[in-house]
Amino acid sequence: MKNSLNQNLNQKKDETLNWDLVQEDFKTKFGNDVFESWLKKMNLLEINLDNLLISVPTRFIRDWITSRYLDNVIQIIKSHNKNINRIEFKINTVSKITLDENNTSNVINNTGNVIDANLAFTKDSFGQYNRIDPNKNFDNFVVGSSNNLAYEASKKVTESISNYNPLYLYSGVGMGKTHLLNSIGFSLKKDKKVMFISAERFMYHFVKSIKSNEMIKFKDYFRNTDVLLIDDIQFMNGKEALQEEFFHTFSTLLDKGSQIVLTADRPPNKLSRIQERIRSRFSGGLVVDIQNPDLNLRAEIVKKKISDLSILNSNKIDISEDVQNFICLEIKSSVRELVGALNRIVSFSRIYNRVPNLSETRIILKDLLNINENKVTIDDIQTMVCQSFKISKNEMLSSRRSRYLVRPRQTAIYLAKMLTSKSLPEIGRCFSNRDHTTVIHSVKTIEKLRKQDNELNIKIDNLKNKILYKNGDEI
Ligand code: ADP
Ligand code: MG
Question: Average pLDDT for residues 69-76, to the nearest whole number?
Answer without folding.
Answer: 87
